[in-house]
Queue: 4 jobs
Job 1
Amino acid sequence: MKKNILIFGGAGFIGSNYIRKVINKNFFVVNIDALTYASSNKNINDLNKFRNYKFIRSNIIDSVSIRKILRLYKPLYIINFAAETHVDRSIDNPMPFVRTNVFGVSHLINEIKNYWINLGLNLKNKFKFIQISTDEVYGSIDKGSANERSKYITSSPYSASKAAADEIIMAFYKTYKFPIIITRCSNNYGPYQFPEKLIPLMIINSIQEKDLPVYGKGNQIRDWIYVEDHVDAIYEILKFGKIGEIYNIGGENQLTNISVVKKICTILDKRKPRKNNKSYLSLIKYVKDRPAHDQRYSVNINKIRKEVKWKPKINFNHGIEKTVDWYLANKSWWKSILKNSYSGERLGKL
Ligand SMILES: NC(=O)c1ccc[n+]([C@@H]2O[C@H](COP(=O)([O-])OP(=O)(O)OC[C@H]3O[C@@H](n4cnc5c(N)ncnc54)[C@H](O)[C@@H]3O)[C@@H](O)[C@H]2O)c1
């Protein structure tokens, strides 16, 4: 018999990639998403053909609706990807971040806890809730790497709201023994990422021969993980992760932002040479830095390697080529976003 799994935020970038991974496994997948600006039916249209898939439009803050969905589908597993996710937008307006990432998650977990408490013993003992958090909660890491016991030193309203959610979820574990796992992953890239984020923005602007705005000197360091590696890690954590634990997830590809942008330019120089014979590198423009921009993220992934036996498989050179090719092959996907919801403008400048 198929196990019911609820995915919140499954119409976004990582959530839709996760559903594509599990749809052929032994699950009945219910995808619940508010369909904010960051999501699109186009991210999930291909899933409608599966008989073990159901989409419901709803908001994690809507307790009544969540309660009904829980009663109807009686899930064994729940994964929450739903969040406001763009740091620059959190600078422009922190309140949607507090509303969804703090209040929304609190309402969601409270409803799920109430559902779980009333389950029969058999289901109750097998139930798991996974919260998808971020390595940004550790803040900027000058030296070494953050492990799961490192302190929160958040800089943006986004990372602060994610850290608040982590604390609430951990409190539910400690207080009610509610069976949670928290994952903290580094920067993702790959198919279906909304064009406001660094990598898709640089690919799409290059293809359109627009400026490539690089914040500050572009020397900020991020650890990049291909989205398929991230969703694999979540899949393995669902099977082998221990209740009450936090797991860092990373790609072990630490790069400066400017080297990422240059890499994209050199791939496009080969894939789609410009008519004026110039390199895409000539489109790079250094612009005013983001306020409170974290200099370096770095996660220690020893725990997931040891306890879950997961490690990243896709190196950056391979993953970024696949990503550039996806955006070249899926122009209608991003062109409709540029037309309808985000046209590439600078956000979060103050
Ligand atoms: N993208 C990254 O690099 C990265 C890295 C680490 C962790 N994360 C975390 O992974 C999760 C998914 O990130 P993503 O990049 O796929 O984000 P995304 O912005 O692409 O998708 C978020 C999804 O959540 C939905 N959503 C937003 N508010 C909602 C609400 N109130 N109720 C229901 N649905 C709502 C949106 O409609 C969208 O489909 C987030 O929790 C994020 O913090 C992302």
Job 2
Amino acid sequence: MASPVPELAVAARCAERPVDGWARASFAYGLLDVDFVGRSAPDDDLAPSANRFRLDPDLAAVLLDETQPEFLGGQFSFTVGASLDYGSMVDFMRTGRPSPGRTARFHRSVEKLNAQDTALFHEQVLPQLPELEQRLSAGAEVLDVGCGDAGWLLALAGAYPQVRAVGVEFDPEWLLRARDRVRTAGLEDRITVEERDPARLDWEGRFGLVYFQDVLHELTDPAAALRSAWRAIAPGGTLLVFDWCMPSSWEGYRTQQGELLWGYQLDELFQGTSLLTRNGFERRFAEAGLADPQRLELEAGATLFLVRRGE
Ligand SMILES: C[S@@+](CC[C@H](N)C(=O)[O-])C[C@H]1O[C@@H](n2cnc3c(N)ncnc32)[C@H](O)[C@@H]1O
């Protein structure tokens, strides 16, 4: 489908002139194609024209479809959303004191970023864990530690109608957002969201799956959180940690993955947290007194650490 600029501007509730500039810039970057109307080449006064711009449907899915593991739109949202908090970056660089807090806008951009990981969980994690898949289909009870906006919980409840789940969150912005989304989805009878410290979950042997998605590396005491999560797992249940691991070699830095992750790591350092290497994660499991986790490397580049509790 090709749309002329005036139509795009109305759909986006924006003005024509900036939309025209944005469309030309997107063409320059190879994101949009153009069907010229009237003239066969760019006009030299750069005024809005009747040209029709096209976005390839596959690229549209990559940029916009949050349900697909190929979704990369969140990377753009995050890069822009996070950088709008960087007014105090100079201060951080000078003093080493992390930024005191993040904005609601930052939270929204993280939600977009993490949507890809939720899609990856369904597309690349579960197919490797048929036993867990069966337990979910049979209605296992699930705990999501640091559930953010409840995106993962809602997707899980949608895919497994028998599942009942609890989300734990400590950030007030995300607590409100998660509860609101669960209410709007009409799933309050299956998903509850509680304010709790991950290091003091206070459940004993209750859950068939305890899950951490992009959370463990942010916690002040990850070993305590793992210990507490382990206690909450029912016999036969599974502890899963999904995260993105920093490369542990200089050669690894100079890869596309290394480049991407160092970009995120600068933001983590700015807010006083840090991504971990694979060894760093494994050390947290050892500190928690847990068995060495099984490690699954996902095609997308993320890593999964897994420990099963005996029956
Ligand atoms: C990147 S978000 C991931 C959210 C969610 N798991 C997802 O995948 O959408 C990181 C999560 O870690 C939580 N978190 C960060 N620091 C924490 C702390 N010190 N104690 C408890 N939770 C924390 C945040 O509140 C947030 O829910």
Job 3
Amino acid sequence: MARTAPRAEPTITRDLYPRRVNCPHCGKAMRADYANRRTVATLDGLTRLNLTIRRCHNDACAALRRPYRPEAEGRVALPHHQFGLDVVALVGRLRYAEHRSVPEIRAHLAGRGLSIAERTVTNLLDRYDELLAVALTDDRRLRKLLAEQGRVVLAIDGLQPDVGHEVLWVIRDCISGEVLLAKSLLSARRADLAGLLGAVRDALPVPVAGVVSDGQHPIRWAVRHALPGVPYQLCQFHYLREAARPIFEADRHAKKLLKKRVRKVRPIERAVEGRADPAAEVVRGYCGAVRSALTDDGRPPLAASGLKLHDRLAAISDSIGRAEAKGGCRPSWGS
Ligand SMILES: [Zn+2]
């Protein structure tokens, strides 16, 4: 890839850990031995990846001290690439589905905040072509590498740079970091995905030791059907997000109801406009507290926005209650 390293500072930081803790070769626990850093230009922004690398320390193991990298790394970018897989997927789509020229693609990427030379666009197009041309059955280098490795840990990811457009499906081996199959599909029915996994399974010269993916139902179904009995691990983040979805929905609903009850802050502020007396100051202070509570979001799935708003409004209401007990009067929205 051309040396067009982005010089800007990363705006996104992601800490990635290997999901697998046991050596894929001997099954003994691997140690988190060291960390690597990588910077990748993605559609979301320049991303710093902090990668924890595990290694097996079993002297009798063929993979002794061989690094095992976080499975999710390959979803962000291919090994040694400075641009994200999402950028590669977008470049391919703009070229082949929308028939844009290289200068047009460059301009489109610039519009999305990615400054990139035309020559680099051409390189990314080459990477896209290579990706889709991978044929496990004919690739002697890849087959030799996998045979020596003895087994694979598969990851399946769907990259969709823009909603409503085709998805680039990529099946990788997490041990070598190699792409085993990539295909662009307009719609991903679960049978299509099972077909892709089946094609990889049939062409592999070695067994599949495990599968890693996110929690989308079609992927889960496809893995179950194409690779029955193979240990399957969900990506931790996606798993948590799926599990938290009902709570997230309930919390969002509760937040909506709470917001309704404190909607009329503006008329109260207006009522004391131009006044500088202590009572007006107090009212303005409470109004400010309510406003800031409304804009202070939690970060799902671990922090619930609705619960946070409830806590903050309850604290404000308690405070008003204490003021009221001292002889003040309660505004109509503070009940
Ligand atoms: Zn081992």
Job 4
Amino acid sequence: MIKTRITEKFGIKYPIISAPMGPFYTTRLAVATSEAGGLGVLSHVTLRGVNSIKDFKAQLEYVVEHTDKPFGFNVRTARVQGDHKILLRKIPEWRNKDPRLKEQLIYGLTSAGSPRKAGAMWKQKAPDMYHFHVGPALWLVDKIVESKCDGIVATGIEGGGHQSYENISTLVLTQQVARKYPEKLLVSCGGYASPEGMAAGLAMGADAVAMGTRFIASKQSEFHENYKALIPPATARDTILTTGGFGPIRLLKNKYALEHGEVVSKSEKIQQELGYSMDGFLEDLHHYEIVYTEGDVEDGAIPIGQTAGLIDDILDVDDIITSFTKEAEKIFKDICSHIS
Ligand SMILES: Cc1cc2nc3c(=O)[nH]c(=O)nc-3n(C[C@H](O)[C@H](O)[C@H](O)COP(=O)(O)O)c2cc1C
């Protein structure tokens, strides 16, 4: 049995977390992950026609109806994410009113913006909920630590979906954060899709690893079958960083990604965002919706990580979590048996 600070504090069996993957739903995936002994995480869903506030509450209710295990959620606190302030306020209110949520909703992950507002609010309204923030580079992790978050999700450039302009690998970043902030809870994310990777992440000092693409390619994830089917044949070379809503985004190289444009610099991107019209925003979102609802994998945006190169099959969430942990344990034992 691998025990870490996170398995102990969160009361979970295995040090594996499902990464949030908005604007898509990961509700059933979160249930399956938590039921299997990992920590399932709800995504910040912003598909068109969805009232994200009501929808978030419905997702929380769905999870507590379907599992009695701990779980978490993500709120993207980016400038352009219009609903985030309401969510930061509402979630602890809902949690305080529902005893099941109070007990089970133990992990709030903010990303894509600042952790400060959430930190200040949640420390007051939900002091027993662990607040983590995504950090893509050590200097940004310094700011997360200043804002008194309980933990860090160190996410490197090889991961799927939105990325920062920092270009730091998970391998380097995880070691840097573990070395500089040994007292902080640490999740390592981006590039994990194998037991070997999981063992390496824990060996570097992570208390858990988080995986996105590996869980998309699972039987329980609610991603379109056409999307899932692209992952096993994809290689590590089949992704590209293009310009996304909050900065660079790693997508599968398809028609949309290749036509969508190169990553522009951070200052150009900020200028772009300041002039962002609702039409532009909705047009962008349309490419995510057509993947989700119609399975259009040519004109649709398909965020996946370089981990696609490690994934050969669509697996059951339970198998992913238990087999990865068992094999990671074996790797540790085998290494130790070679030390005389
Ligand atoms: C489809 C997709 C959507 C994502 N959306 C979000 C999001 O809404 N918020 C967030 O913090 N990270 C998001 N990410 C990043 C993941 O949380 C995580 O960092 C990434 O999946 C790790 O890389 P991996 O996919 O290789 O495991 C997304 C990733 C994917 C693949």
